[in-house]
Amino acid sequence: MTETASTASAPTAPVEKVRGALLRYRVLAWITGIWLLLLVAELILAYGFDNKALDFVPIVHGWVYFVYLIMAVDLAIKVRWPAGKTIITAIAGTIPFLSFWFEHKRTQEVKAQFNL
């Protein structure tokens, strides 16, 4: 029995490329999550206690989040996520603790899909 063009799934990247993209995404999800928690601490210090000791954190988090976006989109392209799933995964880096949970869920999904 052969699949027709309408029922066949779109080809994905080779497993080794998916493995590399997944690793990069996982690392950046954790780094982004940690810097986001530091950003929350910085906001509490700055606005709650008028302390500017962590005033460098927003800039660093912004750049780390930008790299996270690139890694999330790279993985999404390689595993053929729909746009909605990609956008929700990208937004996860803006909500404290959510990047950790999404990293766990997306890793489980990709590992199951590609037998990693």
TrEMBL record:
Location relative to the cell: Cell membrane
Main subcellular localisation: membrane
Keywords (A to Z) from UniProt: Cell membrane, Membrane, Transmembrane, Transmembrane helix
Transmembrane segments: 27-49, 56-77
GO cellular-component term (any): plasma membrane
Membrane topology: Multi-pass membrane protein
Xref: InterPro entries: DUF3817_TM (IPR023845)
Domain of life from the UniProt record: Bacteria
Domain DUF3817 residues, every copy: 23-107
NCBIfam families, sorted: integ_memb_HG
Protein name: DUF3817 domain-containing protein
Organism: Gordonia alkanivorans NBRC 16433
